[in-house]
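B., you asked whether I could sanity-check this one before it goes into the benchmark set. Here's the sequence:
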Amino acid sequence: MKKLTPYFQWRPHPWHGLEVGPEPPRLVYAYIEITPFDPVKYEVDKYTGYLRVDRPQRTSSTPPTLYGFIPRTYCGAHVGKLAANARYGDGDPLDICVISERPISKSEVILNARVVGGIGTLDGGEADDKIVAVLENDTLWGEVNSISELPPALIERLRHYFSTYKLTPGQPSQVEIQQTYDWEHAARVIEAAMQDYEETYQSMTHRVEK
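And here's what the prediction gave me:
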C-alpha cells in the first residue's frame, strides 16, 4: 500500500503559513479558534495546525467576541518587556478578540481585523495580552478606530471572561487582568510580537535553509 503524504504538508499552517495582515499593526489577519457560542476552549495544535480541544469551560462564561490569534506573532521577551511585572511572554501567538455585529458561528476562519486597543493580562506571571479589534468591513463597528469608542459594558465582559476562564475550584487564579489600553500601545505590542516571531522562528528557518 502506498504511503500517503501528510495533509499538513500542503495546508498552510494558520500560525506560520499565513501573513500577519494587509497593513500591520493596524489591519491584521485573525485566525479564529473560538466563537461566542463555544462552551469549550479550543486551541490550534502547534504541530499540525488543526484545532484541538483544550478543555471544557468550568464556568458558564463564554467569550463575548470571536477569539483567536494573529499569525506570525509570538509572545516572547519583547512582548514581556511591555507588560508590567512580566519578563517574558507566554510563548504563544498573540491573542486577538474581534467584534462583529453579525453572529459568526464558525471557527477556523480567517478575517481582516482593525486593531483598536487591548487588555493587558498576565497568566502565571507571563504576558498574555489580548488585542481588541473590530471586523474590518463590519456595518456597525467597521469605522471604530479606538477602544474608547466601544461600549464600556463590552470591555467589562471581555475583562470578566479572561479573569474567569481558567478558574479551578479551590485554587487561586493564575490570571491577572491589568490595564485596558488604546490603539497606540496595541500597535507596540503587535510590533513586539512580530519581532519576537522573527527572532524565534525566522532565524531558525534561515539556519535550516543554509
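One thing to flag: The chain has three helices and nine strands. Otherwise nothing jumped out at me.
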